[in-house]
Write a structure and sequence with these properties.
With 663 residues, the chain is mainly alpha-helical. Among the domains are: 233 residues, no CATH class; 78 residues. It contains 28 helices and four strands. The strands form two sheets. It has a two-stranded antiparallel sheet with strand order 1-2. The chain has a two-stranded parallel ribbon with strand order 3-4. Strand 1 and strand 2 form a beta hairpin. Helix 4 packs antiparallel against helix 5 and helix 15 runs antiparallel to helix 18. The longest helix is centred in the C-terminal third of the chain and has 49 residues. The radius of gyration is 32 Å and the shape is globular. GO terms for molecular function: NADH dehydrogenase (ubiquinone) activity; NADH dehydrogenase activity. It is an enzyme of class 1 (oxidoreductase). Its main location: membrane.
Length: 663
């Protein structure tokens, strides 16, 4: 088969698997698991073949007109360069691992058939985005992912958290999609085509008339889909869905789509210095703010969710300094270790029976109950913290090195201010990332208290996948010497200055967190848990003093009390309570948007019921009253009718005489 034919099969096979799974899920339950695993696995194999054939050389491009439009044509087009080939392989690897993992994780779930079909459809939509060479076809995959995320995040629809999270994810991403669609139309109007190659050619020739406006409109959609400030608030709440869904969304689909889109159309954004600066500021705020929030979260999945937001900030930061090679390199490395982190977290939750790090920290020997998750998550957290030689070190240093080159004027792909913004924010985030990664590891695996529950060994389909993903988390970064051909010739070798500085800051963040944990652990041994539960927002020292002074513990909800051994409270101090709720951004949105919309809806309801309905009711009541009056006159008595007729005649005669006399 030709490369083009094989490329068409890559998104098509998961789509066919999804349709077949939805049709046969109830009538042939024995086919559900094969239909869930085999199509993405076959798609992965074909994506690898396409990548090998493409080899980082000339892009594979083909197109056929989809339908005549009378103006700007819409084409079913492929455009597979080195970036697309590698990202498709990542999507295939993560989707296959998620489907295999889900066969064990959701083995007793009655809604597994529809879940598996939606995951396959999700995978197909992302692969369509990756391979598409036409922006409208890309938009189709973009929107299908949003629909799939709504259903998958709301998988446990019986719980109010899942229902609210699914609606929030859908609405916030759609909020960004509206300007995104307008930006696509404006871009196609200037270029005269939706084809990616034509658009890039128009930008190169200076034919883009409104680059800043178009770039900012597109950036709004990217901010929603890739969970960047200020449209990132949906992603932590989306953790109400099944853990494998979280792994898929965070590692290879949905949030990766926005970063990939900017990388594909980076010249459009580079045509506007203002847009690149806005992108840099957005990345910096996203990086630092999400890292602080991650340090204050108690739910293990929310820690990882804010971590994803921060790592996506690194990717958009690399794009803000004009280096799409570094951005996609970090996208690939992050995809492997973030999928591993979520799937390992699923094993831990499955074994401990809780998402709460505070509860896990009171379980002794939890790491002995889940040895596979313990070792593989340790590898993934080291990669997340960018400790050499793990993959995250090489990809993160590529981002910081690119920012340094722009900041110091060695390259002119972006404004120098953007370089400094990304570099400073990236170094600050490196400290915070190592801090919350260390905190998560200590609270989950170094707990003290009662024995962790023993639920037996986890299914092999869940644990085997962890070791598969541990390999790229450990070794992928070492391939940086072989990757330049795939990344436009970009040298991905770590820069000495940022490598030493970034690694040093990461080590400082980890060691400081460890020291804080030792201090808070010693304090926790002297503080009754009931006292902590009764004063969840108080400083640990104040709780200890009050408990000692009273000579007795106060009572409260001990199981979900704030953990006095949590180093995040000590490190963040007064900032902790604000970081724990995402710096109240949801509350701000409630005041600025939700309440005005609700007030407007209440006004419309009032006008509809009290004004419009009043006229409608009156229009119906008036004929009814007239009919009642006429009905009363119909007595059936002939004498009454004759009397009325005579009276009417007399009235008419009198009226005629008066008119005649007056005339």
């Amino acid at each position: 088969m030709t490369t083009t034919t094989l490329a068409v099969l890559v998104p098509l096979l998961p789509f066919l698997g999804a349709v077949t799974g939805l049709l046969l899920g109830r009538t042939a339950p024995g086919l559900v698991r094969p239909l869930a695993v085999l199509p993405p696995l076959a798609s992965l194999v074909i994506a690898v073949i396409v990548a090998v054939r493409q080899g980082g050389d000339q892009a594979v491009s083909a197109a056929t007109e989809l339908t005549p439009t009378g103006s700007v044509p819409i084409e079913l087009a492929l455009y597979i360069d080195g970036f697309a080939a590698l990202v498709a392989v990542l999507v295939g690897v993560v989707a296959t691992c998620v489907q295999i993992y889900s066969t064990g994780y959701l083995r007793d779930d009655p809604r597994y058939p529809s879940y598996a079909a939606l995951v396959s459809l999700f995978t197909s939509a992302m692969l369509l985005v990756v391979y598409s060479g036409d922006l409208i076809v890309l938009l189709v995959g973009w929107e299908v992912m949003g629909i799939c995320s709504y259903f998958l995040v709301g998988h446990y629809w019986e719980t109010p958290e899942a229902r609210a999270a699914s609606i929030k994810a859908f609405l916030v991403t759609k909020l960004g999609d509206v300007p995104f669609l307008i930006g696509l139309f404006a871009l196609a109007t200037d270029a005269g085509s939706f084809r990616v190659t034509t658009v890039l050619g128009t930008v190169a020739s200076g034919g883009l008339h409104h680059p800043t406006l178009i770039a900012l409109l597109l950036l709004a959609g990217v901010a929603g889909k890739s969970a960047q400030f200020p449209l990132h608030t949906w992603l932590p709440d989306a953790m109400a869905g099944p853990t494998p869904v979280s792994a898929l969304i965070h590692a290879a689909t949905m949030v990766a789509a926005g970063v990939y889109f900017i990388a594909r159309l980076l010249p459009v954004f580079q045509a506007s210095s203002a847009a690149m600066t806005v992108l840099a500021v957005m990345a910096a705020v996203t990086m630092a703010g999400s890292a602080l929030a991650a340090l204050a979260q108690d739910d293990i999945k929310r820690v990882l969710a804010y971590s994803t937001i921060g790592q996506l900030g690194y990717m958009t930061g690399a794009l803000a300094v004009g280096d799409r090679g570094a951005a996609v390199f970090h996208l690939l490395a992050h995809g492997a270790f973030k999928a591993l982190l979520f799937l390992a977290a699923g094993v831990i939750i499955h074994a401990s029976g809780t998402n709460s790090l505070a509860v896990m920290s009171r379980m002794k020997d939890l790491r002995a109950r889940v040895p596979d998750a313990y070792w593989t998550m340790t590898v993934a957290l080291l990669a997340l913290a960018a400790i050499p030689p793990f993959s995250g070190f090489f990809s993160k240093e590529a981002v910081l090195g690119a920012a340094e080159h722009v900041a110091t004027g060695h390259t002119e792909h972006a404004p120098g201010a953007a370089g400094w913004i990304v570099l400073v924010a990236g170094l600050i985030t490196a400290v915070l990332t190592a801090a919350y990664a260390t905190r998560l590891w200590l609270l989950a695996f170094r707990g003290h208290g009662t024995e962790a529950p023993d639920h037996g060994r986890q299914p092999v389909t869940m644990t085997a996948v962890l070791w598969v993903l541990a390999v790229p988390s450990l070794a992928f970064g070492l391939l940086y010497g072989q990757l330049p051909d795939w990344f436009d010739g970009r040298d991905l070798t770590p820069v000495l200055t940022t490598s030493v500085l970034g690694t040093g800051l990461a080590l400082v963040g980890g060691l400081v967190t460890y020291g804080a944990w030792r201090q808070t652990t010693a304090l926790a041994a002297r503080v009754p848990l009931g006292a902590v539960a009764a004063h969840p927002d108080a400083d640990a020292g104040e709780v200890e003093a009050e408990a000692i002074a009273a000579h007795a513990p106060a009572f409260g909800d001990v199981a979900y009390a704030a953990d006095p051994a949590d180093p995040g409270r000590l490190l963040l101090g007064p900032l902790h309570r604000h970081a724990a709720v995402g710096f109240h951004l949801d509350a701000v949105y409630t005041v600025l948007f939700v309440r005005p919309v609700q007030a407007g809806a209440s006004l419309v309801r009032f006008l509809d019921r009290e004004v419009v309905d009043t006229y409608v009711r009156a229009a119906g009541a008036l004929p009814r009253w007239l009919g009642a009056a006429v009905r009363r006159a119909q007595t059936g008595n002939v004498q009454t009718y004759v009397s009325a007729l005579l009276a009417g005649t007399v009235v008419l005669v009198v009226a005629a005489l008066l008119v005649a006399t007056g005339a």
